[in-house]
Amino acid sequence: MVKPSKMFMVIISLSMVGGIFKILGGFVGGSKSVFVDALTSIANTLAIIIMYRFFSTSVEPPDEDHHYGHHRIGLGGPISTLMLYSFVGGVIVVDLYE
After folding, report:
1. Which GO terms describe its molecular function (predicted)?
2. Do residues 79 and 58 touch, judged by C-beta distance below 8 A?
3. Which of 13, 31, 81, 98 has an alpha carbon within 20 to 30 A of 68's alpha carbon?
4. H or E element: which one contains 9?
């Protein structure tokens, strides 16, 4: 598995902190647009983490259990990202119609 760099970890951490501040701003200010922006910001950060995890697993060399390598597990990243964005989209739609 590819080890994440310190810069990658700093970027992910700052992105999550920004998303948390946006959520707080959405609740304190009562702005639904800021809340939606916060949800998409956190979804983007989680999507990056998920894609990184699946990609780093997919580039591992073949082993005894996987004679042809781990290439196909790389498809789990886009599928997981699609599910994540669908969930966030559902939360946004429910929140906007309340």
Report:
1. monoatomic cation transmembrane transporter activity
2. no
3. 81
4. helix 6-29
Residue 33: what pLDDT? 86
For the chain, what are the domain ranges? Answer: 6-96
Rounded average pLDDT over 53-82: 86
Convert the pLDDT of each residue in 1-55 to its tens digit.
Answer: 557 788 888 889 999 999 999 999 989 998 888 888 898 999 999 999 999 889 8
Structure token pair of residue 60: 């591992």
In terms of C-beta distances under 8 Å and separation of at least 24 residues, what long-range contacts does 31-37 make, across chains too?
Answer: 32/95, 32/96, 35/95, 36/92, 36/95, 36/96
d(CA 6, CA 12): 10
Residues 6+ apart with CB under 8 A from 73: 54, 57, 58
